[in-house]
Amino acid sequence: MKWTVAAALMFLLAAPAPAATDAGDADIPDRTKLGEFVPSSQPFAAPTISLTDSDGHTLELSALRGKLVLVNLWATWCEPCLREMPSLERLQSRLGERIAVLAVSEDRGGNKAVEPFIAKLGLKSVKIYIDPKSEVGHAFGARGLPTSFLIDREGKVLGRVEGAAEWDSPKILGVLEPLLSGDGVVKASSR
After folding, report:
1. Section 152-181 average pLDDT
2. For the chain, which end, N or C, has fewer CB atoms within 10 Å of the first or last residue's CB respectively?
3. Whether 145 contacts 138, CB under 8 Å
4. What is the number of other CB atoms lying within 10 angstroms of the CB of residue 175?
């Protein structure tokens, strides 16, 4: 009995405190609600990355400066990703040129895995990019899929959404609209 109490006490003392986070995750609360926008406490420069589409054309993320950008990391094997993709399509269709929705597939199978999925869902508005080595996810420090990053017109990451979101919902549109109108106020979608 004494050994069990002593072992439990040692475990509690050795376990990290619930509020402890890595320095790279300082902007992410421990209790992040999946599917909700969490603003960065300090917007930071988006990583310098190149994206490759299914035709092999590349795009530098920096080429989109001056535009609101949503980078969505996903994969065809990720069930929450599959559920959220139609709402990303509706968001891009609804907002048109006011936002660039970049859906970056992290599928290791590359284009062969992605093309049938795009055809099945009839995705036409969202621009699809292929990242079989997960370089984009690593550059952003994504912790899982799906994860999305909202980038302002100056190339700063304003915040993220971990987990599937309903991108055309009033809650998320309430986050995006002030940025689209130019007042630049960023709010969490849960508040």
Report:
1. 96
2. N
3. no
4. 23
Mean pLDDT of 29-40: 81
* Cα 17 to Cα 156: distance, rounded to the nearest angstrom: 31
> Cβ of 163: how many Cβ atoms within 10 Å?
17
| Residue 188, phi then psi, degrees to nearest 5 | -75, 145
The whole-number average pLDDT for the span 88-99 is 97
Q: Provide the pLDDT confidence category of residue 3 given band limits of 50, 70 and 90.
A: very low
Task: Determine the topology of domain 33-181 in CATH.
Answer: Glutaredoxin (3.40.30)
Nearest to 151, CA basis, from 74, 37, 54, 57 = 37
How many CB atoms are closer than 10 A to CB 125? 14
Q: How many residues does the chain have?
A: 191
Helix or strand (DSSP H, E) at 84: helix 79-95
CA nearest to 99, candidates 55, 150, 140: 150
